[in-house]
Amino acid sequence: MKQDQPDIQQINKFPIVAVLLSGAFLAILNQTLLATAIPPIMEDLNLTENTAQWLTTIFMLVNGIMIPITAFLIETFTTRRLLITAMSLFAVGTLICAIAPNFFILMTGRVVQASGAGIMLPLMMTVFFLIFPIEKRGAAMGIVGLVISFAPAIGPTLSGWVVEHYPWRAMFYIIFPLAIIDIIFAYYVMKNVTTRSFPKVDILSILLSTLGFGGLLYGFSSAGDNGWSSTIVVLSLVIGTISLLTFILRQFKLLQPILEFRVFKYKTFTITTAIGMIVFMALIGAETILPIYMQNMAGFSPMESGMMIMPGALLMGVMSPFTGRIYDRYGARWLVIGGLTIMTITTFMFTNLTIDTSLTYLTIVFAIRMLGISMVMMPATTAGLNQLPTRLIAHGTAMNNTMRQVAASIGTAILVTVMTASALDTGSNADPNKIIHGVNVAFYVATALSIIALVLSFYIKGTTPAEDRAEMSRLEEAEIQ
């Protein structure tokens, strides 16, 4: 049973775009909202760095677990109902975080928050790909890029200002009413634009994906405290790997898979997804490590570590719509190559940090790095999704976001683990420069990942959206025949 495809041309797009962007902004903002607040939370709740970074990584992990299910949810529920449910979950989680008396309750709130936030981004991207024609998707996704890039970038700045003037819980009291306002607007202006096909849910697949992604992240995150040879670390990685492989194999056998891995048959989609994973890993990883370095090792205040990020956030926010329009005209290839070149060079420039590194140096290098990321993020995503036939777009957005979120979770865990494990001295009277050595090693690892992404970018086809439209039409005609 299918509902009729709505007449999208008759729908007023502006209120739909506004309510989706607002909800996604709040959801993505919370990925890095705690970045500069982690040191005060560590002190307040008596946590180690590896334990505290779970407040960031658990949010991204639950996002990664929820996102695969969104293709099923989009095909089962109306757009309006799904949006309101997602934002309601997010609001409840935010309230739990605000009143949390201990680390366990705070983590619970982050999980509930993320279960709603995980639905928002793929839902927004799927709706945008349905309501905008292919030749306008670059500009539309440029606006999405502004949200995806600007929100996690401004999170540390906002939290830095808040924790310097107020208790860290105030951050959640600020977000909560904004989430409620978005729910009210969604109730009145959201329209149903997705097609429902009512697929069957496969509980075993959801369990396997949860065990797979959760096991891998727990293993990588625990290595910093317990060591790579620890039984719990090895067991978590083994269980995670086996579960994930079983999950993938099962998806190929299901008539209606939870996560459609056949989207990887499309070469450009595969390449751009891999690039997106590395870029998001580099973005979130740096925004986790740099505030820890600045506050705990170099003597900067939470406000200064937040302000260091602000110029880059503004630059990225301004550039995203422009890069979207450039993509619409020329395609993604040279944008992505140029952006990754900038990202690689500036990541390498973070491998020589010391206790005396100036705020000016950190701010300028980070801003230029964000410029490079803005040239890569949405052009690469749009180029990959434009290669998919319409019936696979919901699965493509789910897959793209799943891979990106899980890569960011595991990548952040690895980089923090490398940082703590590579410090030359961690004692209470240790030379700060010996502790900072671990930060520099972490950025060497990030530089190596950036180089891999740069090499992959040369394999992106130099096609324009008009050529993508012709190719998509050819593929859809071939499927019908």
UniProtKB/TrEMBL annotation:
<feature type="transmembrane region" description="Helical">
    <location>
        <begin position="139"/>
        <end position="158"/>
    </location>
</feature>
<dbReference type="InterPro" id="IPR011701">
    <property type="entry name" value="MFS"/>
</dbReference>
<feature type="transmembrane region" description="Helical">
    <location>
        <begin position="227"/>
        <end position="249"/>
    </location>
</feature>
<keyword id="KW-1133">Transmembrane helix</keyword>
<feature type="transmembrane region" description="Helical">
    <location>
        <begin position="436"/>
        <end position="460"/>
    </location>
</feature>
<dbReference type="InterPro" id="IPR004638">
    <property type="entry name" value="EmrB-like"/>
</dbReference>
<feature type="domain" description="Major facilitator superfamily (MFS) profile">
    <location>
        <begin position="16"/>
        <end position="465"/>
    </location>
</feature>
<dbReference type="InterPro" id="IPR020846">
    <property type="entry name" value="MFS_dom"/>
</dbReference>
<feature type="transmembrane region" description="Helical">
    <location>
        <begin position="201"/>
        <end position="221"/>
    </location>
</feature>
<protein>
    <submittedName>
        <fullName>MDR family MFS transporter</fullName>
    </submittedName>
</protein>
<feature type="transmembrane region" description="Helical">
    <location>
        <begin position="81"/>
        <end position="105"/>
    </location>
</feature>
<feature type="transmembrane region" description="Helical">
    <location>
        <begin position="12"/>
        <end position="34"/>
    </location>
</feature>
<feature type="transmembrane region" description="Helical">
    <location>
        <begin position="305"/>
        <end position="322"/>
    </location>
</feature>
<keyword id="KW-1003">Cell membrane</keyword>
<dbReference type="Pfam" id="PF07690">
    <property type="entry name" value="MFS_1"/>
</dbReference>
<feature type="transmembrane region" description="Helical">
    <location>
        <begin position="269"/>
        <end position="293"/>
    </location>
</feature>
<feature type="transmembrane region" description="Helical">
    <location>
        <begin position="334"/>
        <end position="355"/>
    </location>
</feature>
<dbReference type="InterPro" id="IPR036259">
    <property type="entry name" value="MFS_trans_sf"/>
</dbReference>
<keyword id="KW-0813">Transport</keyword>
<feature type="transmembrane region" description="Helical">
    <location>
        <begin position="111"/>
        <end position="132"/>
    </location>
</feature>
<keyword id="KW-0472">Membrane</keyword>
<feature type="transmembrane region" description="Helical">
    <location>
        <begin position="170"/>
        <end position="189"/>
    </location>
</feature>
<feature type="transmembrane region" description="Helical">
    <location>
        <begin position="54"/>
        <end position="74"/>
    </location>
</feature>
<feature type="transmembrane region" description="Helical">
    <location>
        <begin position="361"/>
        <end position="385"/>
    </location>
</feature>
<feature type="transmembrane region" description="Helical">
    <location>
        <begin position="406"/>
        <end position="424"/>
    </location>
</feature>
<keyword id="KW-0812">Transmembrane</keyword>
